[in-house]
Structures are given as C-alpha cells and as structure tokens.
Amino acid sequence: MTVNINSAALAVSPAKAISISDVNLYYGALHVLKDINLEIQPGEFFAFLGPSGCGKTTLLRLIAGFNNARQGKVVIGGQDVLDMPAWKRDVGMVFQSYALWPHMTVAANVAFGLEERRLPRAEVERRVQAALELVGLKHLADRRPSQLSGGQQQRVALARTIAIEPKVLLLDEPLSNLDAKMRVEVRRELRELQQRLKLTTIFVTHDQEEANTVCDRIAVFNEGRIQQVGTPMGLYEKPANLFVANFLGTANILDGTVSGSGTQRTFEVAGAGSIPIPAGASVPAGAKLVFRPQYATLGTLEPGAVALTGTIAHREFLGATVRYGVQVGTTTVLIDAPFHSGEALLETGATTMLGLKPSSALWLAE
Amino acid sequence: MALVQSILIRRVSAKPGQIFAISVIALFLAIFLIIPAGTVIYTAFTEKGTGALTIVNFVDFFNTDLFRRSFFNSVYVSGMSVVWASAIALPLAVLTTRFDFRGSLIIQTLGFVPLIMPPFVGAVAMQLLFGRNGTVNLILNDWFGIRIPFMEGLNGVIFVQSLHYFPFILINLSTSLRNIDRSMEEAAQNLGSSGVRLFRRIVFPLAMPGYLAGASLVFVKVFDDLATPLLLNVKDMLAPQAYLRVTSVGLTDPMGYVISVILIAVSIFAMWLSAIAMRGKDYSTTQRGGGGLSRRKLSRGESIIAYGVVGLILLLVLSPHIGLLLLSLATVWSFSPMPDGFTMAHYGRVFGESSLYIKNTLIYASLAGLIDVVIGGAIAYLVLRTKVVGRRWLDWAATSALAIPGVVLGIGYLRTFYGVTLPDGTPLATLWVMVVLALAIRRLPYALRACYAALQQVSESLEEAAENLGATKQRTIRRIVLPLMTGGLLAGFVTSFSTAAVELSATLMLIQSNSDAPLAYGLYVFMQSPAGRGPGAALGVIAVVMVALCTLLSHYVIERRQKALGMTK
Description:
The complex is a heterodimer of chains A (366) and B (569). Chain A has 366 residues and is of the alpha+beta class. Chain A has two domains: 18-239, 3-Layer(aba) Sandwich (Rossmann fold), CATH 3.40.50.300; 252-364, CATH 2.40.50.140. Chain A has eight helices and 21 strands. In chain A, strands 6-7-8-3-9-10 form a six-stranded mixed β-sheet, with helices on both faces. Chain A has a five-stranded antiparallel β-sheet with strand order 16-20-17-18-19, with no helix packed on it. A four-stranded antiparallel β-sheet of chain A has the order 2-1-4-5, with helices on one face. In chain A, strand 18 (321-328) and strand 19 (331-338) form a beta hairpin. Helices cover 74% and strands 1% of the residues of chain B. The longest helix of chain B is centred in the first third of the chain and has 34 residues, at 65-98. Chain B is globular, with a radius of gyration of 25 Å. Chain B starts with a helix and ends with a helix. The chains are: A alpha+beta (366), B mainly alpha (569).
C-alpha cells in the first residue's frame, strides 16, 4: 500500500494506554481467562500470541466489549470500559473475517461508523476519502466487497476502523486469510501505518513469526493465562518457562536431576553425563535443561563448554546448516551445525560428543 | 467443420443408456407439460372458430368489467396476503433467531403446521370462527357491540391465505437471519451502532434476499390458488374465473385460456422480480467457527410481551386446525360461539362411505411421488454427473412447472387430451391417470431440488473408487449412488406425496366421476353444503393426520439412515 498520508486528513489523538487488571472470565463452569494483568503503553504495537483456544481472542473481544467479564478492570486512556456497551467504547476492531457488509459499497462501509456518530455529511465524506487514501483504495470506493481481493478487503476493513479515529486498534488475526506472500507484505504495511498514526494496537496471532516481526512487545498466552510478557528477543533469550521456550523457536529439553548445593550444583542427564549449573542461575523445582539447537556443537568443545555423549539418530541437510537429531539419554535433541563446503558430515549411528556451554543453557519448569 | 466434429465427439461421449434416459424424460415433459401449457397459450392467442392468430381475446378481457375487477382483486389479495404474512412472520423470525427465547423450537415447529393442510381445508372452519356470525364476532358483539369483518369478501381470502402461507416467509427469513455471521453485527457495534438502527441498517438488509424469496413465493401461491376463493364464495378473482369459464361456458371459450396466460405471466413476473432483486446478493456470511448472530437475553417485561405476542400469533395460526377439529366433532354449529354438542358420527360416515377417497388419494399421491423421484433422480444424475447434450434443458423444463398454476395445467390437459379417446370412447383427459400425471408434473420441481441435494451429498470420489475397482457405470449407480441417495430421495418422495395428497386445483378440473375422486376433491364437494361440513371436516382432519404421519415417519427414517451412515455432523 503506497501510504500517502495527508497529515491533516485523519486526526491523530494522543495515544492511549490500556490497563487490564485481575480479569477473570468464565463460560459457565469453564475458566477461560485467568487472572489477567497487563499494561500496554501508549502507542505500543502489542501482540497476543498463543495456540488456538488459549484465550487471546477472548481477551481481545473483551476489550472490544463482546464478552462480559464481571471480574476485574479494563481501563483505556484512563476510563474503565467494562460496563460500557461495545458501541460506546470507541475501540476500533478489525475482524478476522473482515466482516465487510456485502450490501454496501466500500465507501458506505467506511462511512458507516461516521454516520452512526451523526457527523455532518461533509465531514463523513472527507474522512472516508482520507481513510481510503491511507490504505490506497480510493479508486475502489464504489465497488462491492465481493468484487475485491482478500488483501483489498482487509484494507477496507482497516480503513473502516481507522476512519472513526478509535482510541486503540484491535487486530484479530488480520493476516490469517491472506496467502503467504501477501502476509509478509501486509504485515510491513500494518507496522508502517501504526507507526504513522501512533495508535496503540493489539495484534492477535498464533504465528510467532508475525508477532516477532511486527510487534514491540508480546504477551504469550496458554490455557487462559499470560505466561510471559516481553520483547521478541527477550522472550527468545530468556523464556520464563518450558511453554514459552517451546512456543517461540525450537527448544531442546532434557530431563535430569540436580545434585549438590550452593555454587557446586550439577545437572545430571541419565546415560549422557552431567553439566555444572552456573552459580547465579535460577533452577526452579522440577526444572529441565533447555537449550537452542544452534548453541551446541558436535564433536568439538568450545572453551568453557562441557561434553555430553550422544548418538546421531537422523540428519537433515538444510543448506547453510545441517540439522542433526542426537539421541542423548532417552531424548532426541536437535543440533544445528553450520555447513562448511568439503566438510564430512557425521553418519547416522555414530557416537558423538555434544558440547554445550553452561552459560547458554537454561533450567526451566512447566 | 470444427462444429460438426465437436458435436460428433460429444455424441460419442454420451452412453446409449444416457441418451435413452434423456429421450424418455424429454418425451414425458413434452407431452405432459410443454404441449398442454403451449396449447393453453396458443389457444389464448387464436380467434375462436377461425383459429387465426390474434390478441383480440386479451382486448376483450380488459374490456370486460368483471375480468378487470377479477384481475385487480387477485393482485390486491396477493399483495395484502404478503403484507399480513410478513406481519406474522417478521416478529416470529426475529424473536427466534435473535433472542434467547424458550419458545423458539415451538414456533419453528408450529410454523410448519399450516403447510401440511391446504388453505381451503381450513376456510370453512375459519368462517365459523371469524365469520360474521362466528365465534369471535359473536363474543365481540356480546361484549362490545362490534363486529370485525375478518371474513367478508376479499378479507376472508386474505385472512386465510396469510395465515396459511406465512411459513414461507418465516422459513426463508429465519434461514437468512441465521446465516448472518455474528461479526457482521459486532463490526457495526464496534463502529458505534446498536438497537433498532443496527437492525435496520445491517441485519435486515442482509436478510433481505431470504425475505424476498419468501414473499414472492407467497404472492405467486395466493395468486394461483383456486380452491380457497371458491370455498369462500369469492368468484371475482382470476383463478376462480378461469375455472368457472371452462366448466360452465365450455372448453372452447377463449377467456379461460386468456386468464391462464395472465396467471402464468404474473407467476413468471413475480419470480423474475425476486430473482432480479436477489442477483449477486448471496449474503450468507457465516464463517467457519463463526456461528450466527448472538442472541440477547430478554428482560422480564420484554419476555412477557414476547410470550403474549407469540401466543396470540400461534393461536391465530392454529385456529383453522382447531376450528376444523371442532367442526368434525360438532353436531350442530351455527350462530353460536361453540358447537351445540359433540359426536363421532361424521368420522363414522367418512370411513364408511368415503373410504374410497382415502384409497384414491393414497394411490394417486404415491404414484405421483414415485414418478417425481424417478424423473427427478434421473435428471439430477444427468445434470450433475454426465455431459449429455440437452441435460440443462431438462432441468429448465422440469423447473418451469413452477410457473404453471394447477388450474392452468388442468385446462391444458382437458384441451390437449379431450379429443384423444380410448377404444371404448372415453376421452383420455378424464382418466384418473391424468390426475396422477398432473400431480407429478406440479410437484416435480420440488422433488428435483431434493434429488439434487441428495446427489450432491454423494462425493464423486466414491463413484470413482467403485469404477476404479471394476464396477461399470450402471453397477456403480445401483450399488453406490442409489443406496447413498436413499435418504434424500425419500425426502423428495415425501414432499411430493404429502403436497400431492392435498392438492386440489388441477384435480378439480380433471375429475369427472366421484369414484375417481381423491380426498381433496371429496372434501371440496362435502364443504359445498351445510350438511356436508361435518363429514368434510372429518375428511380434512384425516388428511392432515395422514400427511403429518407420513412426514414424521419419513423424518424418522431419514434420520436413522443418516445416523447409520455416519452422515450427520
């Protein structure tokens, strides 16, 4: 989308913060949202990330006013909105299905919210034009939604929402109905638009790549609970638990037992060896050893690394790297080794030494 | 050259069996639908006596005061029936689809009840309940000293028809409302809309196609109906005029044909109008996992009002049935709110001397249903699974029966087959078989849709698998397609059977002797005289029970089959 913003076209009000505290939601006996607490900064591009059924869309709809939590508070720009009906909240939402009304033209769709606000005709006209221009669809104003492509429909949905100059913008899986190529394009445009409008935005997705590339911060959801809040890099580097480690990127997880105490603790992996636990590392009860595939070496030891024994179980050549499956004790872990031309690859069945620096390992519990 | 080649290639691709099937069906449709309808139209445009082409008959028609009045009366009655049917259907549809309303299931079920009984059956009972000296007006007169002319003249026809046909609007509108995705409504709320405004701007426009489909159907049905006005003694409408001209003046009188052409034209016009209005408006927006509109809880006060309105409407809707039941059990019922006493004598009489009607009905309706399913199934297979030239034409021809009112088809049969006589001198047109064929043709479009639906449920890969394992086309049809279609075909059969069992307009034209008459005809004859009302009503009750039982039974059978096949979702 060639973003031609007339800076005066759509008023940009100061970005609003969203504050959610102690929200619980039940569907009958089912506890769908559990003790949700979240602070979203003004102007932030924020992601709700998690597998399907984790509660992320439920929370988004709660903010928009489509579910009723009778517990907790949702404050947008200093105003508690939980007791307000959806049509009074001024919270712009782009639906996963886009929800464009098929009996109205593109322009009529975009004008709808403005007409509901009883704005004067000229103002409605001006804002419709501005919103359509913003998403680059001014020339399609008289079309029907069914005559547009998926990407165009999505932009109309976006234009319809930002035309009302909402306090915050909610995006419910906005890329899920687009093909892979469009997705990459549209997510960049979304980011660009958000930066320009300085609109506090929540983006719901189950795709970690989308969340990582677009958002400032991410809340990872599982089973109705927020697991961790952080920047994309922070979550990858310092996951708070096994779920987050597994959900963002690939994680190797080894079972074992902690022995010793104080600064002399070691983590024992049955049938493969042991690894000293760094002095400052926190090790929760029932912790497992977690490391990323690229942080271990095969056959060589970097300075400071310790060795575990393993057997090559399978091998995949990926071009820049070779991904080995290595049987360590009873678990198969994945190791990415950089591929150097002319180098011999390890053969399946070979016993090998797996080198790992204790400093790049984590001990996490469920 | 290329054209000839392509035709040759296409010829080759059609199997002899397919060509045979298509020819037989085409012949059947030509003889029993196209030619009779064509004859009626042709006759309307020819001068009586000379046979020259002319439009003078139409000029005569519009110059005759009675016919002009009949035309406007028909339009007025159909239009007002749509208005009143909408007034009944709209609140019911909105209440059942948009609110958490305990009575939803009852409304949806009871909404279908009128459809299992043709409108004319209840007409006489309605007169006793709502007529000038009917129950309601006697009570009103006692209490307030007023009478409301529910049943006077055209009002009676409108009243009976709208009570009878409102389910068409209810069903279509409810389906449309249910197919609106919840996000459509939520998006509007998100942008600041709510309440009546939201309904007017978003929900109702999205349900419009369903409403129009229902409304045009009601218009056409009322416009074509013959028996209801006749029984209510309203003669200045088009269908009764056509019937009266042909039966009293004779088969050579051109006016009957002119009226027939007008009936066809108006039917086509109404369907065309609704098709135009709906073009490009498939507004069904439900998403996977989306679910329909969210339902709102009613407050206590709203609940009371809602139950009140629904109760009143349902009482109205069921009044023909209640009235009919009372009438069938009444000794004498005249100038009193309730019958003087109750008796089973009418049922005794009906089962004694009129069991012939019931037997005839069962035979006619079963045969008509069977013909419909065989032809409908064959057309569906030819259209969906083969590339035989002309298969689309079969579909169109069969569907065009929708536009031919029963009275027109009856006139067409009389005109076309009266001259054809059997060896013993009886005209072909008066044979009972003709009634069966007319019923089959009239019901074919509905059965055809059921057959399409049934075949579409059978995945083509199931057939390919059978062929891959060595089954020929014929054996695949017999062993795979037919068994899997059984449920749908049965549904088609039952639709045809139950509506054919109570159809009167074509029958009224074609039945010549009482011994050939089906139930609906007997009912009509009984209802003509005050003394016959009791037995007539008893016959009506029997018809309703018969149709209802068949429908229930088929639902049960179909459901069990679907469950057994694991086809229910």
